[in-house]
Amino acid sequence: MQDVIKTTVTVLTLAGAVLAALYAYRKQLLDEGASHRADATQLTERYSKAAEQLGHEQAAVRLAGVYAMARLADDWPEQRQVCVDVLCAYLRMPYETDSNASGFRHGEREVRLTIIRIIRNHLLDPVEDTTWCGLNLDFTGTTFDDGSKFSGATFSGGQVDFSGATFSGGRVLFNAATFSGGQVNFVGATFSGGNVDFSSATFSGGRVVFNGSTFSGCQVFFIRSTFSGGRVNFNGSTFSDGQVFFNGSTFSDGQVRFSGSTFSGGRVDLINATFSGGQVFFSRSTFSGSQVTFGRATFSGSQVIFSRSTFSGSQVTFGRATFSGSRVNFSEATFPGGRVDFVAATFSGGEVNFGRATFSGGQVDFTRATHSGGQVKFTGSQVGAAATIDWGPFPSMPVNQP
Length: 402
Fold this sequence. Notes:
about 25% helix; 10-stranded parallel sheet; elongated; 8-stranded parallel sheet; alpha/beta; about 30% strand
């Protein structure tokens, strides 16, 4: 009987302990739920207040709203994308830069530059708890003027959209930025003044798209950038003025495409660039009045493709370039005017192919070029009487069309 009593007491004690633990756990859950609801209410109130400040008439209050929304994004991971969307939406709003225009707002430029600076600072370190890397950033149609900076930013995921954006003056900086994943769109962007600087940027994955962009009066710098993977597309773009610099850049993998673009003015410089892998496409492009310069470039393993392009008034220069292992393809290109210059170039390997090209005018110049290896092909080419070709070290082709 004593054993039974002891067993019963032990069981009841254990049951009481279990019930007490369940009660405590349930109370903790209720307390935590109440705490979460209180936190959510507080965060929602902070969001409403920050949004209200962003719409205020006074610039100082709008600045306070910018900082409040950014801090809220850091404190509220579940709604971080929403907070960032609000800041991006502010940048997409109409922006009048002319102080004499009716829509001009004093202090507005400082508010916008502050938003850009905060976004850039959150893209510097993708492993930070408060990083905004990987989020979607929508800058569609935004106007970026002097002082807009994304220097050193990392675009490693999500979609960043500069489609239809306008870069209209001063300097906009993407120097030392890293494009390693996701997609960054500059589709239909307009570069009409000032400088846009991608110098020392790294393109190692993902896609950066400038398709259909217009370069009409500014300078865009990709100096000493590295293209080691991914794709950078300028397809269908218009270069009517200004300059785009790839000087000293390295193309070791991936693709850079200018296919179907129009070069009617300005310059595209790839001086001292290194092509050791990957592909660069200028196929089906029109060169009617600009300069494209590959002077002193090294072609040791890439493909550079000008197939079916038209050279009617531009100058494309490969002066002092070294062809030791790449393939440069002008097949089916048309040369009714302009000039393609290989002066003092060195051909020690690889292939330069003018197969089925048509030389009806303009100039092709191999003066002082050196040919010690590799192939330079003119198979099936047509040479017109109006064309001027200095064959240099290569066997000349007779005129074979009117």
